[in-house]
Design brief:
The complex is a heterodimer of chains A (636) and B (683). Chain A has 3 domains: 364 residues, ABC transporter type 1, transmembrane domain (ABC transporter transmembrane region fold, Up-down Bundle), CATH 1.20.1560; 154 residues, P-loop containing nucleotide triphosphate hydrolases (Rossmann fold, 3-Layer(aba) Sandwich), CATH 3.40.50; 78 residues, P-loop containing nucleotide triphosphate hydrolases (Rossmann fold). Helices cover 63% and strands 10% of the residues of chain A. Chain A has a 6-stranded mixed sheet with strand order 6-7-8-3-9-10, with helices on both faces. In chain A, strands 2-1-4-5 form a 4-stranded antiparallel sheet, covered by helices on one side. Chain A has 21 helices and 10 strands. In chain A, helix 3 packs parallel to helix 7. The termini of chain A are far apart. In chain A, a hairpin with a 2-residue loop joins strand 9 and strand 10. Chain A is elongated, with a radius of gyration of 37 Å. Chain A has 636 residues and is an alpha/beta fold. Chain B has 4 domains: 31 residues, no CATH class; 320 residues, ABC transporter transmembrane region fold; 128 residues, Rossmann fold (3-Layer(aba) Sandwich); 73 residues, P-loop containing nucleotide triphosphate hydrolases (Rossmann fold), CATH 3.40.50. In chain B, helix 25 links the parallel strand 9 and strand 10. Classes of the chains: A alpha/beta (636), B alpha/beta (683). Chains A and B meet through helix 3, helix 5, helix 6, helix 7 and helix 8 of A and helix 5, helix 7, helix 9, helix 11 and helix 15 of B.
Amino acid sequence: MPASNFLSIGRVFLRTWPYLKPLVWHIVLWVCLQLASFTTSGLAVVLVQDILNNKIMLGHPLEPGQATLLLLDERYVETAELTQEQRIVVRDRFILAVALGVLLNTLVLQLIVLHYYFTWITQQLNQRLRVAMIERAERVSLRYHSHARTGDAIYRIYQDSNTITAVVDTVILDPINITARCLTALFILWLFSPWLGLIGVLATVPILAIAAWYTPRLQRLSRQARQAASDLTSRIQEAFAGIRVVKANQAEQALLARFDADSRRALDAALRLRLEIILLWMAILAVGGGGILLADYLMAGWTMSEENTWLAGMVTLVGFAVWNLGAYQAASGRSAEYSDWSRGLIAKWTHMLDMAVGLERAFRLLDGEVDVEESANPVAVPRPIHEVAFREVSFSYQPGTPVLTGVDLVAKAGTVTALVGATGAGKTTLMSLLLRLYDPDSGTISLNGTDLRDIGIEDLRGNIAIALQQNVLFAATVADNIGYAASVRGTAATRDEIEAAAHIACADEFIGSMAQGYDTELGERGGKLSAGQRQRLSIARAVLRDTPILILDEPTASLDAQTEQRLLRNLSEWGIGRVVFLITHRLSTIQGADRIAFLEHGRFVETGDHETLVAMPDGRYRSFVEAEVAGAREAS
Amino acid sequence: MNAAAEEAAEAPRGIAGELSGLGVSPRFDDRIDLDPELTNRESLRLIWRALKLLRSVKALFFGKLCLATLALVPGLTLSWVGKVLIDQVLLGAPIDDSEVRFPPHFQPFVDAVRDLDRGDVLLAVIALLATMLVLFGRGGLGVWIGYGADTATNSELKLNAGSSRVAGVVGVIDTWLHIRLSQRLANGLRTRLFRRLAHLPMAKLDDHRIGDSVYRVMYDAPDVPEISLGLTLEPVFTLIGVAISLYLIQYSYGAVSPQIVWVAGLLVPVGLLATLPASGLIRRVQQASRAAGTATTNAIEENMSNIAAVQSLGGMARERARLAAKSEESYRRFRHVRIMEIGVSAVSYLLTVGLGAFVAIVVLAEIIVGRMTPGDWAALFGLALSIGGAGLAIGMAWINLQANTAAIRRVFFFLDLDAEDTLGTLDDLPPVRQSVRFERVEMRYPNGHRALAGVDLELRIGELVAVVGPTGAGKTSLAGLVPGFYRPSRGRVLIDGHDIAAVDLESLRRQVSYVFQEHLLMSESIRANLRLGNPAATEEDLRTACRTARILDFVESLADGFDTVLGQSGDTLSVGQKQRLCIARGLVRDTPILILDEPTSALDPRTENALVHSLRDAAEGRLVIVIAHRLSTIRRADRIVFMEDGSVREVGTHEALMAAGGGYRRFVELQGGLQGGRGQPRA
């Protein structure tokens, strides 16, 4: 078996240890109960076969130990043959004993105790992993998410973390159990005849060889199948998100065709994987089944000639001194069991391969490069904040295409700073850096001189409120959406706070006109609200957080002029003592700022208030303003 | 009350409970079907529909039927092989020494070995077993890989489920056919759901939750083949097996021990009795578990798609807690399912043990008195157990069936949702040459909100029209009427004199391009994104469109140019870049009518100027409708439509409207006046 496969699977499975560790005593207890159950029942079967076949059916006298067990006297032992009446008595007691044993072991222990206990253990494990993965997915920087498709992430968390549940089962517990069963069966066979034991051991050689030959193949197919399923999920998800665009472009047919192709690929991959697994099983079945037939042939021959069993006289509890009907039944049953369970072990191996693939993908997310590393000893955000400073900040999303190159900017408390510049100049990126959604490639960003990287991430973000340009609303009521961020601080927002925030954001009017006002349910992604309404809700949400730093990304893009002016007035009143950043294109909005920072080619080329900048001859800002005014004038 | 809920209430099949959570209930997750009550009639109707699906896979189904019949052979034969091995080989009894008759299909083998000695009979038996091993293997086949302990995960596995009662050559082929059958059926349904979504009216899609629900229902789809197959294959073959087994017992043992026959016959109803009473209870618990599983998926999905917002609002800890709670709840409910299952298994197991003991007592009595041989024990006990198992299997099948009918109901419900009336009976709209006219158009959303109140308006090809007005004035609703996204509740929209309600929707949309406020790009190459609406577009068409949208320079500056693959929802681009790509996508379609909903909101003035300038050129021979707030965009329009409160207040050129001194002038002054107020640049 290729060592690399063992290694990679081993490594992947080792990774589950931290999640397993808290449950380890439960698992040990479960295994012990299980083993006790298997070995007792395995040995009991031999006894059962002897009494049933040799004693009841053929009338052989009971062994002394058997008579004691069934509470019968020596008349059942010291006789050449049992009478019909005696056989009836043995039958009744035997059936009662077997029924009791079966109920106790199978029903109580196996089904009720162990089955439920196992479900509980695996769920505990799966829960831990899911939470860890979500946590990680949130910490892995946005850079990861902008490249990984959402559907894939969902697939991973949902499908692959479930695989972990099965890890304990397939990799640790089942192999232990099955091996114990195999060994018990093999041990009993050996007692009957070393030859049988030898056949059993020898049969494992071709079985292992076949499994080893198949392993890399199955791994590859399993990876393909999972990738195809994940691609399909992404495709479906994306299609659903963008369905309006699809309709507007009449691309339904193209979409269906792609869906069709994707699902065909996924289905074919799934079928292929399953067929290969079946074929592997068949190959192993051929070996195992052949072994059973050979053993049966030998045993039947020995029974016909009534040869001695290997341990002939050593056993007093069962009457298997020579090969007889009971001995044949007991041994033949064990050889079938041995063969079937060792096949089960191989089946577990194929499961294991598939799981290793799933885990590999799950851990890739867990191992995902964390661009934004939490400081080991985070300091608190300084209060009050006097200034936010960017010094020589450079950043690029992809190597080779810098977005920011040496940005310098200081924003003081109590000022509104407008970030202005051409589309794609890096204004939004700059604010993402302030939030530590990314860290700069070089340079520092500091609050009152404290480097952001020394501040706890959650603490930092807790002190910055932002109204995003791509405003995201949650599927909840209007009030919940505005109050969303407040519950981050631990206490729910009161209705008064929510209404006050809505008032500042000029959202109170349209909310009031909704049939259920603040209790109106919004659909996912904002349902039926217009862009301007969504914008104002997300501004209200940011305002409600009452943080020392506020970022507004294009807050007025979808507002009419009247609402815009009212909003700006409200914000500047509210903004006293805070650092407010405003990212915007609208001249009317820009003019409301105390300071304007004009960004071009990844750096601030001009900084100052509107009058100063406009007064600069050949200034970049000035020509920007002229373009706007000229645009408006040219048409008139 | 929101739109979706109302529409659901109007849904023809009276399945309001299905979607009751959509609007009425305050809790979002309640939109999952929590209603476990299904009348028997409804169950039967749904099951009948599921069965009718089999028509689409006739050949496969027939093949599976044949093989499954063949798979009954080993169960009915091996018992007798065991009898011969024990009686004739091991105990050395003559073959016809018993009152028990061998069944007809096994008689040829008996005849063949009648005159052989013990050793040769053994060889014959081994040879027969070897043949059976190749053909039927040992035990059955079923591939269940990557299983998890969760209801939602199982859907993906059900899609590719397949099994056989036997292994060996027959079993492999049987399983293969079964997998293909499940896949074919489930995927057929998924495709239909997908197509249904693509044809849902835009007003429904405005409520994203409808789309999201369909998405989830895609995961219910694999339950349907499980029903159609589970109902036709499993119980049928189980019953056939039982019937044959009973016949064989009667044939062989009827004369020797009549009570054996009726004991065996009783096994089936007893097995059923053990499971049926619990079925309603189990179904309810399973349903609750499934709903909780869906809630977890919802939580994860929302979390992932809102990741930027969650991160920037510092809501991570809260989101994590929310997810953990959902997931924990899902597991708790799943454990309840387990407990129910264990309870049912325990009862049926008890019954099995009791019946087994009874059969053992009867058969052993016959052996002790010498009417039967130890070989008959092997033959009979195997047959009796398989009959008892069959009763249990049918009972369990019924329970599973019930669990699935709820899923089936959801699937069919969405398949039946109103589609747009795109019936091919309507005439095509001829190429647009003149105008779009609104005649007393009134429009209400399904929730009763009036978006437009009696609009009369004519827009001509060759014009660049700006639609202006305060937020909520009805601009988007007006524009959405043109491509038939919405339907007027009163009045008509005429294009070149054709009422668009009376023309084929496809032909209408072929001539209208609509660029939305939200800029949605697929995670594919820029080229594929641009060609979305016009797969036939040439490289030159793409470049022209990009040039007009002022994005060509940017695209060419990318390392891979048009082949650059965009990230999830185009996150690697700035909003302005996405906006312009979406405009370019609209332009690539090259339609006589182009509608742009706020195309310049995220653009800097210079880019905006250039874009509006090229749009003016694009209006040559086209009708371009621009919804806008920015004065610099508005002013360049040939005509301005000023709207307020769902009505068109003023129409005219910028100068005319300024001179009129109405609402438009006030609107402009508010913007322009303040603009000049704080430092007029020297132009």
